[in-house]
Specification:
seven-stranded mixed β-sheet, alpha+beta, four-stranded antiparallel β-sheet, 11 helices, Ribosomal Protein S5, domain 2, 11 strands, globular, Alpha-Beta Plaits
């Protein structure tokens, strides 16, 4: 709609323990994309500035053109500047942020012919992970439903007092590599286990009752298998719960580990450093809120 504008896109965490491929949550950690119509240029600052492509193969640009292809409109020349604060390949939705950012940019230049739900469909086809994508678009916690040939998302309000304490290891992890470990079939008892925990997790959030949050984020479908890639994972889970975390889980396919807490933040942060040191793992710690906002445009 405007010839120059900025898009803010949040990081996201998917699964939240038991909600494999259906739960995602937006975090108060943001990438920014500035878009200006008129001439072609692509620059990146921050994460990925030395690694990501700055031509038309970039995921943001590939997503930017989708609304034009969808509406059969002419693709304009644009100047795109990216300011990346979301670490790449760490399980924090950097790919979803790129895709949604590109889609919003294209849709805005077209005067927004596509609804958020249509953007969800396009982004999910591009990314393959609707849980991340939904949280990126809508913010908060999102429950994504695959209804045959279409998707829709249901909003879940997260208690505002909760903070996400993120331990982000220096080493990256490919989502595709982490997914290769997952079994094609699961045990019925394990499926029931996750269904009950996912239900309890949603209830805990919407009723603002965090008493059973540690139980609510238990998982038997993907984290035990991924522990082969992260042998230190269970030690983090155990020690951070003892330190006062309400729950601990692998963010997406990892390697980031997130502890949710409403108190004892310093104790949990100290324990993260202690556990990381005991396993000789270097990384950053980010303490962020859950973002009620999804990706949005500032002119």
């Amino acid at each position: 709609m405007y010839s120059k504008f900025t898009i803010n896109i949040p990081a996201t965490t998917a699964n939240i323990g038991p909600g494999f491929d259906c739960l995602g949550m937006a975090l108060d950690l943001w990438n920014k994309i500035t878009v200006e119509k008129g001439f072609s240029e692509f620059t990146i600052k921050g994460y990925g500035e030395n690694d990501l492509p700055t031509d038309k193969t970039n995921l943001i640009y590939q997503s930017f053109i989708l609304p034009f292809l969808h509406t059969k409109e002419t693709i304009p020349n644009v100047k795109i500047k990216c300011y990346n604060q979301i670490p790449i390949a760490r399980g924090l939705g950097s790919s979803s942020a790129a895709i949604v950012g590109g889609l919003l940019a294209g849709n805005n230049l077209l005067k927004n012919p596509l609804s958020n739900n249509q953007l969800l469909q396009l982004a999910s086809k591009q990314d393959g992970h609707p849980d991340n994508v939904a949280a990126t678009i809508y913010g908060n916690c999102q429950l994504v439903i695959d209804n045959k040939s279409s998707l829709f998302s249901s909003n879940i309000t997260v208690p505002s007092k909760l903070k996400a304490i993120c331990f982000i290891p220096d080493n990256s992890m490919s989502t595709n590599q982490a997914r290769k470990l997952l079994p094609k079939k699961v045990n019925m008892k394990d499926a029931v286990h996750n269904i009950s925990r996912t239900s309890l997790l949603i209830k805990s959030f919407i009723t603002n009752d965090l008493t059973n949050l540690s139980i609510a984020t238990e998982d038997k479908l993907h984290q035990p298998v991924r522990a082969k890639l992260y042998p230190q994972m269970n030690d983090f889970f155990k020690t951070l719960l003892i330190a006062g975390a309400r729950s601990v889980f692998l963010s997406g396919s990892g390697p980031t580990i997130i502890a949710l807490a409403d108190e004892k933040i310093k104790s949990i942060t100290y324990q993260i450093r202690k556990t990381a040191k005991s396993h000789n793992i270097n990384g950053d710690i980010r303490i962020v809120s859950i973002s009620e906002k999804g990706a949005h445009i500032k002119t």
